Amino acid sequence: MSAPLSSSGPAASGPARPDYDWLYSRTRAGRERGPQAARALLDHLGRPDETFASVRVVGTNGKGSTCAMLEAGLLACGLRVGRFTSPHLEAYEERVRTGGQDLDPQRTARFLDWAKVNAPDAPFFDLTLALAARTFREDGVQVAVMEAGVGGVSDATQALGRVVAVALTNVALDHTGVLGETVREIARDKARAARPGVPLLTTATGEALDEVTRVAAEIGAPLWTPESRPGLFDLPRPPALAGPHQARNAALAAATLRTLGYGAGVEAALAATHPARLERFAVNGRTVLVDGAHNPHAAGVLAQAVPRADVLLFGNLARKDTAATLTPLLEVAPVRVFTAPGETATPPGELAAQYGGVADPDPHAALTRALALTPQGGTLLVAGSLYLAGTVRAALRAGV
Fold this sequence. Notes:
UDP-N-acetylmuramoyl-L-alanine:D-glutamate ligase
């Protein structure tokens, strides 16, 4: 077992900014990925994940919204609740929450001081997972809502102990270089997050559900779906989160709460909000809708929820399927502004040349341009990346 995290050192003498540069450098390609390395790091910390019950949330899209609703429902039941999600929109500490509040950056700083000495080669995601588990133990968390990063059985969150339920939102093509080239392959990886005797709940459909059903039987996990247990997934009213797709996320959250004996929290879950999920802003007589849709499935769902806008502000990462993500959004808005949400973004100039529109690699300048192109009373839709959503959201909240 490692030495405990100390409250002494730089953080104790006054506020110190966490060394985010060091932390983000841990994302370099080639680092070990998967539950084995994460388990070793948790063991090094004294197995903090064994002190609270974990509800794992896996799936291609909708995980963040489902986690937000689960957190709200569990809090309403009077529990001490933790929440671990990714990525963040504006501040790293959004990833780790206790009692509905983001982590204090000073706790991040102290943990990173420990990690530099005790786990210098650990990957970024594993470090954040370990920080969350350590925080939840220190704060006396009873139930933690734990969002998977990529996949299910191959994700670091597979290392968690005391998993009491697994909620699988849906399965679509994304991260194909890691999880598989087909929906069935991806569904198998995600479904194998299931554990013997632990409820597996899903709103997946079609061939993905077929594969999930097979995996659940192999593992010995009881499988609950809207078809097999309609009452479990029933909603007394629509959720506060906008878009028809949120009804399925809400149904999954409600079913999970009821399965765990916390059905009294369903109303609070339905009232939950979550940033950058069709989040609405009013800017000088214009409506701005900010959404983190960043893969083909999410973009298709968004296009159904917002069939018409005046301007689209789009930017995404080059490792994503840009063409398939952008295609459903092209019919939404006749005017397009393309930008770069990060250094590894698809070049906006190339997108403008191929699909028609204007380009500005600076997201702030692109937002200003997109707003100028949006008529009074009109709508600007922002999509393509959670990183872009976070940047735009921060600018809008600061008054652009």
